[in-house]
Amino acid sequence: MRGPSHLVSGFLDGSLPLPGQDEVDARLTELDRRLIRLLQADGRRSFAGMARELDVPEKTVRRKVNQLLDDNVIQITAVADPALLGFPVMALVGLCFDGTQAVKPLMNSLAELPAVDYAVITTGRYDALVEVLCRDTAELLTVVHDTLARTPGVGSAEVFPYLQLHYQEPAWDVAQDKAAPERTEDGDSPQTASLDATDRQIIGELSLDGRLPFQGIAETVGISESQVRKRVTRMIGDRVLRITAIANPRSLGFGMQVWVAVRCRPGQGIEALAQLLTKIPSITYVVACAGRFDIFAEAVCRDAQDVMRLIDSEIRTLPGVERTELLMCLDLYYRAVRPAERRT
């Protein structure tokens, strides 16, 4: 799983609430938004450090951050490449429902499957998209054909195995101001580190709570607090781990999320087109895949007009785009990616 220095996302447990824009605007203050942005840059930033930077009392910062967490506006989690956590095989699966089951309960059951880390109800060709993480292709076959395709209410499943996870930015609004992703001279990611079993245990604990005290992690893992701190610092420095605040996009003013399926023109390099897509401000996720489409890109937009601009002016005008299909996201389901368990 190689791509630019941006890491594959960790996901929130359960359904991400999508409040109305009026509700969001009434609830979030400018201080709330500034705190979210600081925690997106470093999810473990201290209350005292944020208080100094924002010139407000530490007790105010502590109260505000705890309120944001309690209200599910943000969740602070570990973000790491699933390949390094024991999931080298990933795929996006487009599902069509047969109408025999209510959609939301069906999606809840799909999102609870161990292999599913992301699920979204969509409009368009597919009723839903789910992302699955597997330890090998045999497990992918089992998940798709023995589990997803046989779930009551699922009429059909179309699989798009990932060839390359090209770009991911878990901070929704940071993507709006991004520069082009950093790449090495040969086009590969600078991310080359490997993780041992202890590293994976630490990430597993941080995926549940990115601000969990190192002492608590040390007691669970069975090493010293200083060793936990050193390992986390190393993994962050090697860019295989990021601890960040994942925010409800509507909380930051982004009212629409979409997936764009892209087919490349014959003779066009898929990687070159994927790289162009990463430079578009609204794009938060780009994957090259096998199947009917060559690329899937996720984008977060402010409104329908913003979506129109994205599709008509920024994606369809790119050299090498043969055709696109737009899938509007209606409801989102996430789960934190935890290290794969050893097979017995």
TrEMBL record:
Q: Which GO terms describe its biological process?
A: response to amino acid
Query: Which Gene3D superfamilies did the record assign?
Result: 3.30.70.920, Winged helix-like DNA-binding domain superfamily/Winged helix DNA-binding domain
Any one cellular-component term (Gene Ontology):
cytosol
A single MF term (Gene Ontology)? sequence-specific DNA binding
Segments for region (Disordered): 176-196
Task: Name the PROSITE patterns on file.
Answer: HTH_ASNC_2
UniProt lists compositionally biased (Basic and acidic residues) regions at: 176-186
Q: Which SUPFAM superfamilies match?
A: Dimeric alpha+beta barrel, Winged helix' DNA-binding domain
Which UniProt keywords are given for this protein, alphabetically ordered?
DNA-binding, Transcription, Transcription regulation
Instruction: Show where the HTH asnC-type domain sits.
Output: 28-88, 195-255
Protein known as: Lrp/AsnC family transcriptional regulator
